[in-house]
């Protein structure tokens, strides 16, 4: 009979979420580097909100995918995955913006620019980053639900040898017991030789 895998410890879930967050930070940095690089190629698309939303979706899916190999329990995994994806977009986006402009100018940006980029603000694009949070938390929450409902099924062949009714498909035996020593004749059986002359 198949056995249930034990639930993954909180430490294991947190470790994988942190790994997924690190990869998601790299994904966000790559997207924002391409977005900030000074080139006319696909400039309209790279600077559009749609491009930014795609980056947020990819970052969220990367974090959520890191939870799939685990069997988490409770709300810890979705909450941490969502927060990790949001932080990945915040950190990776700033790193990518600095890298893109640095590569374009072939030199380090000014201190004022770095201060402006690193200053925490909340605007339209920070609201867009909530998509990363929703994607990661949703995927992790789905994994929690599937881990909860994925129990082992009960065996159907309860009548196998050792069960109360013998092997399935084999009719029970109704043979009469052979009378042993000290037992009388079997009821309904022959009662001995008939008397001579019909009992006369």
TrEMBL record:
<protein>
    <submittedName>
        <fullName>Uncharacterized protein</fullName>
    </submittedName>
</protein>
<feature type="transmembrane region" description="Helical">
    <location>
        <begin position="125"/>
        <end position="145"/>
    </location>
</feature>
<feature type="transmembrane region" description="Helical">
    <location>
        <begin position="80"/>
        <end position="105"/>
    </location>
</feature>
<feature type="transmembrane region" description="Helical">
    <location>
        <begin position="50"/>
        <end position="68"/>
    </location>
</feature>
<feature type="compositionally biased region" description="Gly residues">
    <location>
        <begin position="179"/>
        <end position="191"/>
    </location>
</feature>
<feature type="transmembrane region" description="Helical">
    <location>
        <begin position="12"/>
        <end position="38"/>
    </location>
</feature>
<keyword id="KW-0812">Transmembrane</keyword>
<keyword id="KW-1133">Transmembrane helix</keyword>
<feature type="region of interest" description="Disordered">
    <location>
        <begin position="153"/>
        <end position="200"/>
    </location>
</feature>
<keyword id="KW-0472">Membrane</keyword>
């Amino acid at each position: 009979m198949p056995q249930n895998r034990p639930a993954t410890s909180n430490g294991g879930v947190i470790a994988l979420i942190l790994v997924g967050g690190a990869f998601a930070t790299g994904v966000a940095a790559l997207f924002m580097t391409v977005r900030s690089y000074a080139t006319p190629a696909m400039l309209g698309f790279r600077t559009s909100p749609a491009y930014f939303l795609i980056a947020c979706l990819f970052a969220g899916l990367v974090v959520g995918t890191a939870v799939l190999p685990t069997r988490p329990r409770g709300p810890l995994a979705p909450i941490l995955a969502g927060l990790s994806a949001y932080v990945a977009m915040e950190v990776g986006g700033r790193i990518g913006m600095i890298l893109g402009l640095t590569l374009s100018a072939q030199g380090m940006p000014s201190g004022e620019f770095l201060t402006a980029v690193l200053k925490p603000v909340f605007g339209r694009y920070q609201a867009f980053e909530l998509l990363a949070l929703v994607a990661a938390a949703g995927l992790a929450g789905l994994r929690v639900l599937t881990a909860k409902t994925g129990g082992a099924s009960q065996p159907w062949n309860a009548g196998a040898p050792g069960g109360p009714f013998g092997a399935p498909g084999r009719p029970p035996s109704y043979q009469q017991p052979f009378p042993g020593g000290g037992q009388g004749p079997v009821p309904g059986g022959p009662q001995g030789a008939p008397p001579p002359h019909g009992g006369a």
